[in-house]
Amino acid sequence: MGASLMARNIFNQPPRNETESGAPSPTPPKAAKLPGSVGGLRDSLREITANSIRDIEPDQIDMDGLRDRLVLEDSSIDELAESIRKHGQQVPIMVRPSAQPDRYRIIYGRRRLAAIRKVGGTVKAIVRTLDDDASLIAQGQENNLRLDPSFIEKSFFIKEMQESGYKPGVIQDALGLTRQGVSNHRVVIEQLPDGLVQLIGPAHGIGRRQWGDLAALSVKVDLVDIAKEALAALPDDTPSAEKFQAVYSACSNKARSDNKQANRSLTSVVKDGDGSSVGTLTVDQKTIAIKIAKKDNPEFGRWLEEHAEATLLQLFVQWRNERGSGS
Fold it and tell me: What is the pTM for the complete model shown?
């Protein structure tokens, strides 16, 4: 089944022989025509059970696939665990069969699985036989429906999908984005240095423009070093969005300070052996300027005016010869 078709069917309700809660209905499924071989019978049984909701031991489920969340083990997991302890698991996770017997690979529901591992007991899971593309689409779509990921989480997920070799159409279906939407996320994440996003976290509420402004500073200052210093001054429980603001403010201030320093000019007075002023030398980030006050030394001023071009060329030739002899 193609990825686009799978994307449309990925959240279909359980088959007609199950109720909305996942329990088997009184009406048994129609009897299937048995194949003529044991191998065929095994395939049929696997197909019959492939779309059922089951109670599975959490340690039978492997954390598989790409990360779509920057933070998994956080305070929200404890809150979810307490809710499941009081009310039970209301929404099943989705898994697919592993190549190893009696093991499964998670498709979506990582937070619920982490919470149930804290609570104890089995986890309700929908079992689907999906290929890698369809699993990725299911993971992305369910994540968007249940808890909208932040801009940078989507960007990070896109980066991981691309590095893993998923085709553009699969990536678009997984996140419900257009090709331009995927490009907008990718442009920002590619400008950010490795490790910065993990330092800040998901930063819900911080959008493309703000992350783009921070990324643009990467050519001026070391974002990671400044972020580490800024975040070290914050309490450990500082919300991620506030961490972003602190990092952005620190990086912006550093960039402005460096720019002022770069544009600052240094002027020195050049004197002769008797201590008399000959002129001034001014150096900044862009220029070197020699100024002669004609009123202080009019004869030298006139001489320099006549010989300035030839003298400058002579200095340039001398510099070029010295550079060549030293190479």
Answer: 0.54
